Amino acid sequence: MESNEDFWVQYYDGSAWRTIATYVQGAGFANNVFYNKVVSIPAGTYNYPANAKLRFMCDASNNTDDVYIDEIAFRGYSNGKAVQDDHDIVSLKRELVPGKFFFSQNYPNPFKPSTTISFSLPEASSVVIKVFDITGRRVATLADGPYEAGVHNVRWEAKGVSSGIYFCRIQTGAHVATRRMMLLE
Fold first, then answer.
1. Do residues 169 and 144 make contact, with C-beta atoms less than 8 angstroms apart?
2. How far is Cα 150 from Cα 147, in angstroms, rounded to an integer?
3. Is residue 87 very low, low, confident or very high in pLDDT (cuts 50, 70, 90)?
4. So what's the pLDDT on residue 178?
5. Could you give the 3-state DSSP secondary structure of residue 112?
6. 145 dihedral zone (left: phi>0; alpha: psi -120 to 50; beta)
7. What are the residue boundaries of the structural domains of the chain, listed by start?
8. Which CATH superfamily is 94-183 part of?
9. Are 127 and 145 in contact (CB under 8 A)?
10. Closest Cα partner for 181 from 130, 127, 107, 128?
């Protein structure tokens, strides 16, 4: 994200969206750094109706930067006892399906011993993702089959290969792209 761009966490209390956390690039976070953040909603501050919702919003410019949000846990307290809801909390809104193909740089990069590769599809497509060493020898096939429209992540556990430069190639029905990755020992 560019300097001074931000993203925020909002809570819907059944009647309005309320911002509960804001992060500004350069002040609240830096690019290419992983963070663990806890956002608390103090008891008595908001109501918790059955239709309560959380969302993550961003006002980034029209660039190809990515913000990855992972391992979200919701915990609450009822009469002093901790409660946790492990239900499926993610839903795909049709307007959030990407309008174009994109193949992100793996993260982290350099990496040790595993990395995540992200790509977006504007429509369902067959996808093949392969990893090659510097000599062009295929060392892994990470995906080979149909994928729905949307944003997808695949993970490479680089076991049994030496440290060095590797190339990750994605091939869809209409696109081919390659990214360079560096595995550290």
1. no
2. 8
3. very low
4. 94
5. coil
6. left
7. 6-84, 94-183
8. Macroglobulin (MG2) domain (2.60.40.1930)
9. yes
10. 107
Section 3-31 average pLDDT: 74
The tokens for 30 are 């830096």
The tokens for 78 are: 């009822």
Predicted local distance difference test score (pLDDT) of residue 99: 72
Q: Which residues pair with 168 in a beta bridge?
A: 131, 179
Find the Cα–Cα–Cα–Cα dihedral 98, 91, 119, 185, rounded to 10°: 150
SS3 94: helix
**Residue 15 token pair:** 């009647």
The number of CA neighbours under 13 Å toward the Cβ of 62 is 1
Q: Which of 127, 69, 124, 71 is nearest to 103 (CA)?
A: 127
CB of 76 closer than 8 Å to CB of 66: no
Single-letter amino acid code for the residue at 185: E
